[in-house]
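Most newcomers find our protein records easier to grasp once they have seen one. There is nothing in a record beyond a sequence line and a structure line. Getting from the letters to the tokens is the skill we practise here. An example says more than a description, so a record of this kind follows:
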Amino acid sequence: KEIIAYHEGGHALMGYKLPLADPVLKISIVSRGMAAGYTRSVPDEDHIFYSKPQFMDQLAVALGGRVAEELTFGQVTTGASNDLERVTQVARAMVTRYGMSEKLLPRTFGKREEMIFLGREISEMRDYSEKVAQEIDDEVQNIILEAYSVCKRVIVDNFAKLDQIARFLMEHEVVEGKDLQE
């Protein structure tokens, strides 16, 4: 319960502290299905386009749970596995699909074949060399490390607030509305 409270508190704290993150509406440490808890955020408005700074804040929010565990308990759990998958997927898309790599310049990498009626990618053909593949991996890693660094700094600077959120969650299990704002 304590680990989940700090994990979800980390996501929520990042959601509040980063200017381009979606507002946090509710935090719960009550298990639902495969999720041990959740932090629900909803955008102020529908987004058609995303900027690199918006993606970077999104990545830092997703890393908030893992970083909170690491700083609180000195180790991490498997609870962040889905968060890490999302972070890797978004960072890779930033580099390969959206041309948001400073090093690789604006271009896309890999041709996707999709089954349109299912809306799923069924394969990706590489249209780049092993050297470029390594550069893509390096850029993805750099993006994730930058978001991780921001996340760690914010949580360290606001650890007392994280502690307050987690303690409230351990006592009440769910927080939203006025209590969440406080």
Q: What stands out?
A: Residues 130-157 form the longest helix (28 residues).
